[in-house]
Amino acid sequence: MLHQRRVVLRELLRDPDQGVREAAAQALERLEAAMALKDVLQVLQNGRRGEQVRALMALETIHSPRVFSPLLAALKHADADLRCVALQVLGRKQHAKTLGHMVPCLKDPHPAVRVQAAEALGHFQDRRLVPCLLAVLDDPDEQLVGQAAASLGRIGAPEAHAPLLRLTGDARPAVRRAAARALGELSLGDGEEAPAAS
After folding, report:
1. Of 175, 167, 187, nearest in space to 147 by CA
2. Domain limits of the chain?
3. HEC states along the chain?
4. How far is the C-alpha of 153 from the C-alpha of 187, rounded, in Å?
5. Computed from CA positions of residues 117, 70, 53, 48, in that sequence, does the dihedral angle turn out positive or negative?
6. Which of 161, 164, 165, 156 shows the shortest CA–CA distance to 187?
7. What is the pLDDT of residues 145-160, one digit of tens each?
8. Which homologous superfamily does the CATH classification assign to the domain defined by 125-188?
């Protein structure tokens, strides 16, 4: 069945219509990525560090529920870079059932992982994340505070208004910039949304 699908898609790469060719190319790419899942999982188990990073990144292109188990397992890996990549991919995939595994990463011992967790959570339009992100606004790590502010802006929850206003008086310019941008993205609180960023 998969072989037949691949053959048909390859034939469609020669279709006279450009849109059909583009659709076939995208479908073929997804199909081949899914077929490569077994190899990717093998690399995650036995590959060297650089290969594991690339394998985690490859999981972003694979549309299968089987990618979540290795991504969630990577959140517990001893290597902080692998935890960061897993968070990045999980954030882009935006699967709500992964949130319970991602939120604890805001307290990871490695600063880069905490920052990546704050960024990844901002991809979800889930107001339940607001208290988690508000909790890190008092952290001494400038990057973490700035990324949490940016994510609060993307989520758009009006309850972040007062904490973000407070950050506009922060001594660190990067934090003030992030707070200012986030304030422009928050919901207006009366059922209207803030204008989309251009």
Report:
1. 175
2. 125-188
3. CHHHHHHHHHHHCCCCCHHHHHHHHHHHHHHHHHHCHHHHHHHHHHCCHHHHHHHHHHHHHCCCHHHHHHHHHHCCCCCHHHHHHHHHHHHHHCCHHHHHHHHHHHHCCCHHHHHHHHHHHCCCCCHHHHHHHHCCCCCCCHHHHHHHHHHHHHHCCHHHHHHHHHHCCCCCHHHHHHHHHHHHHCCCCCCCCCCCCC
4. 9
5. positive
6. 156
7. 999 999 999 999 899 9
8. Leucine-rich Repeat Variant (1.25.10.10)
End-to-end CA distance of the chain: 44
Core vs surface per residue 116-138: b (16+ CB within 10 A) or e: bbbbbbbbbeeeebbebbbebbe
Q: What percent of the chain has pLDDT over 90?
A: 70
Q: Which pTM was predicted?
A: 0.79
Q: Determine contact, residues 132/100, Cβ cutoff 8 Å.
A: no
